[in-house]
Amino acid sequence: MDPNDKHWRTWTLRLLALLAADLPDQQAWLGERRLTVQTAVEEVEFAGSIAEGLTDRAVFTPGHLHTLQAIARRTGALDATARTARWADSLAADPAWNDVRTLARDFLHTLPDDRPRPLPRPVRPNPGDC
Q1: How many angstroms from the chain centroid is the CA of residue 126?
Q2: Phi and psi dihedrals of 59, rounded to 5?
Q3: CB under 8 Å to 114, separation ≥6 — which residues?
Q4: Is the dihedral of CA 66, 45, 52, 22 positive or negative?
Q5: Per-residue pLDDT tens for 31-65?
Q6: Alpha-carbon torsion 95, 62, 53, 117, what sign?
Q7: Can you tell me the distance from the alpha carbon of 45 to that of 47, in angstroms, rounded to the nearest whole number?
Q8: 3-state DSSP call for residue 117?
């Protein structure tokens, strides 16, 4: 596998691990960051773009791409008001995240190397996130 493909595959799987995690784990990972739902929507859209290229190069299957597109449709359907909310708060309040969680788990369970995927390592928030 091309090193760039490996990097973007790993990035995508880390995002999906976060989206697939149980609610308390998601909220703990997000912590006090003030990331908005809009940030999550943009990350999912970016993952979808990456997955298209990775699917073309047989890193992901068309089924994986379809699942990522379904996640993007679900998050993309969130209204403008919901997008300004803090992501950690929205996870419990908006049932759309339950659908996203299920779809992300489906994606991860269909990988050929089906192994547990831990949450991404926490990163220090940017000063603008607080």
Answers
A1: 19
A2: -80, -40
A3: 108
A4: negative
A5: 878 889 999 999 999 999 999 999 999 999 999 99
A6: positive
A7: 5
A8: coil
Residue 36 sits at φ, ψ, to 5 deg, of -90, 165
Is the overall model pTM greater than 0.85, yes or no?
A: no
DSSP state of 125: P
Burial class of residue 69 (count of CB atoms within 10 Å of its CB; 0-12, 13-18, 19+): middle
Element (H, E) at 20: helix 3-20
Instruction: Report the interhelical angle of 96-109 vs 3-20 (nearest 10°).
Output: 130
Instruction: Return the structure tokens found at 25.
Output: 């784990």
Say how far apart CA 86 and CA 89 lie, in whole Å.
Answer: 5
Question: Distance between CA 39 and CA 123 in Å, rounded?
Answer: 15
Each residue of 69-87: pLDDT tens digit?
999 999 988 887 788 889 9
Residue type, 80: A
